Amino acid sequence: MNNEMNPQEILCVQNLMKTFSISNKQRRLEKTNQKTKIAVNDLSFTAYKGEIFGLLGPNGAGKTTTLRIISTLLRPDAGDVTVNGMSVKSDPSLIRGQIGFLTSELKLEDCFTPNYLFDFFSNLYGVEPSIRKQRQKTLFKKFGIDKFSEVKIGNLSSGMKQKVSLVISIVHDPDIIIFDEPTNGLDVLTAKVVTDFLLELRELGKSIILSTHIFNLAEKLCDRVGIIIEGKMALCGSLAGITESKPLEDIFFDIYAKTVGENV
Predict the structure, then answer these.
(1) pLDDT per residue over 191-226, tens digit each?
(2) Is the overall model pTM greater than 0.85, yes or no?
(3) Domain range 1-98+222-264, its CATH number among 3.30.200.20, 3.40.50.300, 3.40.50.970, 3.40.640.10
(4) How far apart are CA 207 and CA 48, in angstroms?
(5) CA separation for the pair 23, 35 (Å, rounded)
(6) Do residues 261 and 255 touch, judged by C-beta distance below 8 A?
């Protein structure tokens, strides 16, 4: 992390709460009579400029919900998130201009080309044409999209689709970049391109928040991590400090067993 002696707070999650209603069908599948589920439960953490912060946890832990709230796609029931001092509740439009959000659930229309999508999202963010052209050239070349710039999305490989998704999520050169499972479903070569790029972004002073359940990915990329279990922050701190005595995976399973009461 850059400026380790005097880290600059760029994002603060404060006592975040989010509850969802559970459908009758879902209650039957989960064998529960509960009509609501707490997805995020009094969650707090801070992220700093020039660092990669990892949210770790099993499926259903609340990672994606948290990232969606940070990205202003969901509104919290209680608590708040501030980005450079601006609240997701009162300043969502201003925050959207400062963040990029990449999720595996982002579905690109098959009939469009990478060129069209880059222009479309650049227009949405008000990127100047001269800046847009140079940025597109740089990013398309870095990810090998230039050779497929006029190929329809429906005819691209899954890895190339993911690269296009990544590029259009950062057309506006955001200060904060949020990735939900950034390497999910990617082949090893494409995954390496993505992880190397995340490290490059950190060197440029960008702040990166990523969720993952892949421990070696977190150990390779993250400066600090937070372990979320059942919507609560079970442990948060520097990766070096947390893994001083044992590997991250072992620490996670120890915490999971104590929190949930299950041995895995």
Answers:
(1) 888 899 999 999 999 999 999 888 999 999 999 999
(2) yes
(3) 3.40.50.300
(4) 7
(5) 7
(6) no
